[in-house]
Every structure is written in structure tokens, then in C-alpha cells.
Specification:
This protein has four helices and twelve strands, in the order H-H-E-E-E-E-E-E-H-H-E-E-E-E-E-E. The chain is 15% helix and 46% strand. The protein has helices at residues 2-10, 25-38, 114-118, 122-125; strands at residues 44-53, 59-70, 73-78, 81-85, 89-94, 99-104, 126-136, 139-148, 155-163, 168-176, 181-191, 211-214. By secondary structure, the chain is mainly beta. The model is unreliable at 12-21 (pLDDT under 50).
Length: 216
């Protein structure tokens, strides 16, 4: 369950790696535009797909889900799992195991939250460069290649496809050192929707029989 959570966060973006010693100013312009656009939203809701492929490119699994964001709060709903964060606590619910783990939320930690994927997380955690323009699912995008500054990370490269028309992340690929690839695509984005704060808090009454494991 913990591994899937890391994948989702490190995904809510990543791909192949080459050594980079400095950042590309043109890539920074694109990433800064994404960050500036995201900061104008009061909230965000979007559908996403997560596809896992092995080193040979064979699909090992595919899941769909929904992500909600509001300020530092977020909620991720994916097959078999829900993650809630109210800005203070994080609840990770494993529906199959019927257990939820509670941990403290630390905005200064190295963990990637959905919000960080849309803001300036790249300045500290990655080297980045602009690979150029390409077409993805009929949309014109700019491809940004990210290489983690911390070489102990389980992945060695991230590719972000930025929609040129909207300055939003269209899709992300994460390439792990094991050879696995994780592709994350966002669609049907709705911004400034009315989302209540209770959406980001785990309610045990809605999940009867779930064991609560408090790790705080």
C-alpha cells in the first residue's frame, strides 16, 4: 500500500535519465507558467489514468481515479484505495485490507503531493530541460525532462507533457531503475468547483469495519 501511495504522488509525473549539470531556462519558463496558472485556482478536480508497464513495454496493469485539490488539501480516489489529506493529517485507506493508516502531513517533507506536481517542486528536487514540442492525443504539448537531484530515488527520469494551450500538465511518465514505467494522464479537469472541506477528511462512519492504524 505504501508503495502504491509513493507511485501516485511521484506520479500525480516521471521517465529515462541522462546526467544534467544545469537547468534549461526555457524549461523553467514552461514550468513557471504551469505553477502560476495552478495558483489561480481555488480548487481542482480531475480524472486520471495510471498505466504500469514493464521494461519490455508490456502493460502490467491500468487503473483509473479521481483527484481533488483545494489549497494544501487533497483527495485521491483510485481502484481499491483512497487517500485523504486535510492539511494536517493524511489518511491512506486500503479497501481490500479494510484498514486506514493515519500519518501527520508535513508540507516541508520531500514527499510529492498533488499540489507540488503543479507548483515549483522542480526547483529543489530536479534538474530539468525542454525536449521540444510534440503531439499527444491530438494536443500540442511541450515535453519537459526531469532528472532527480537525489540519485537514491527509485526512479531516474520523469517526462512531463505540458499542454501548450492551457499551461497544464497533460501527462507524466515515471521511469524506475527496475525498468518499470508508470504513465499518468490527467483529463476532464474542472477548476474552481465547489468542494467542501469534508471531502478531505476520512469519515469512519462511511467505511464501517475498517481498522484504524494511527502512526502519528
Amino acid at each position: 500500500m505504501k508503495h502504491l501511495t509513493i507511485i501516485i504522488f511521484s506520479l500525480l509525473s516521471i521517465l529515462f535519465a541522462q546526467a544534467q549539470t544545469k537547468n534549461d531556462p526555457e524549461a523553467k519558463k514552461v514550468l513557471d507558467a504551469v505553477s502560476a496558472k495552478f495558483k489561480t485556482f481555488k480548487s481542482l478536480k480531475g480524472n486520471f489514468t495510471l498505466e504500469v508497464k514493464d521494461a519490455n513495454g508490456k502493460t502490467q496493469g491500468k487503473k483509473t481515479g479521481v483527484v481533488y485539490m483545494k489549497g494544501v488539501k487533497y483527495r485521491i480516489s483510485i481502484t481499491g484505495q483512497e487517500i485523504f489529506c486535510d492539511g494536517k493529517n493524511v489518511w491512506t485507506l486500503d479497501k481490500d485490507a479494510k484498514e486506514v493508516q493515519i500519518s501527520e502531513f508535513d508540507s516541508n517533507s520531500g514527499s510529492l503531493t498533488p499540489q507540488k506536481l503543479f507548483t515549483n517542486f522542480y526547483d529543489k528536487d530536479f534538474f530539468y530541460k525542454l525536449n521540444g514540442d510534440k503531439a499527444v492525443s491530438g494536443k500540442s504539448v511541450k515535453e519537459i525532462e526531469l532528472t532527480p537531484t537525489n540519485k537514491s530515488k527509485p526512479f531516474f527520469k520523469v517526462l512531463l507533457n505540458i499542454d501548450k494551450a492551457t499551461n497544464m500538465i497533460n501527462s507524466t511518465q515515471i521511469f524506475e531503475k527496475t525498468g518499470n514505467r508508470y504513465q499518468y494522464a490527467l483529463s476532464n479537469i474542472s477548476t474552481n468547483a465547489a468542494i467542501g472541506d469534508d471531502m478531505f477528511v476520512f469519515d469512519s462512519k462511511k467505511f464501517p469495519g475498517v481498522e484504524i492504524i494511527d502512526l502519528r
